[in-house]
Amino acid sequence: RGLGSSGSRAREDSWLKSLFVRKVDPRKDAHSNLLAKRETSSLYKLQFHNVKPECLEAYNKLCQEVLPKIHEEKHYPCALVGTWNTWYGEQDQAVHLWRYEGGYPALNEVMSKLRQNKEFIEFRKERGNMLLSRKNQLLLEFSFWNEPVPRDGPNIYELRSYQLRPGTMIEWGNYWARAIRFRQDSNEAVGGFFSQIGQLYMVHHLWAYKDLQTREDIRNAAWHKPGWDELVYYTVPLIQEMESRIMIPLKISPLQ
């Protein structure tokens, strides 16, 4: 009786463990190598600056004076992709997106040179007095998304940010490699990125629209395309949190 009871408990324990222990498929490469563009080695930096409300106008003016000098300086291997103020979402917020052509070595080179740039040092000091908080993330771009290139305006931009469940980035990429085809008709897809440093398992999709009504019309039209609803159905369970920002570009932004 004792042996039978012991064997029963062992089988029960084994069955319970099978409910909670997830089998992992072995992978031979990092997620970044599987999902990112192989033909480029660009690294992106996304900056969020929460500005004191009374300082937003002065902050924008300061950025418009200094940031183009970094963007246009040839010996800095970086480019300003876009710079915006958040319109709907977190208020009194500035968002900047930079590209470092050459990956981490390019980032290190730029940071090293800027530490020797007296004008930039003064800019950071003056800027710091205007901020409540700031954070940044280093990103790679999804291989199946559009390359973010300058565009004429006027446009509004939507930055949709997704906090994924850890371990689901490959699934997300597999579904969106198909889903992006449904969102190309109106040229609204600007860029898609995933985080490498900062808040992890973050995905950012950047879209451009003529106005809020155009955004509504384009998004509604996607639901009439066979297959879009299925892809949404399978990607929603991968998300822990999501956020949408509607942003207005500054005058210096290459994305207008």
From TrEMBL:
Pfam family, one: NIPSNAP
SUPFAM superfamilies: Dimeric alpha+beta barrel
Domain NIPSNAP: start-end pairs: 157-254
Entry's localization field: Mitochondrion matrix
The keyword Transit peptide appears for this protein: yes
Chief location bin: mitochondrion
Keyword Ribosomal protein: no
InterPro entries: Dimeric_a/b-barrel, NIPSNAP, NipSnap_domain
Superkingdom of this protein's organism: Eukaryota
PANTHER family from the UniProt entry: NIPSNAP-RELATED, PROTEIN NIPSNAP HOMOLOG 2
Family affiliation: Belongs to the NipSnap family.
Protein name: NIPS2 protein
Organism: Orthonyx spaldingii
Gene that encodes the chain: Nipsnap2
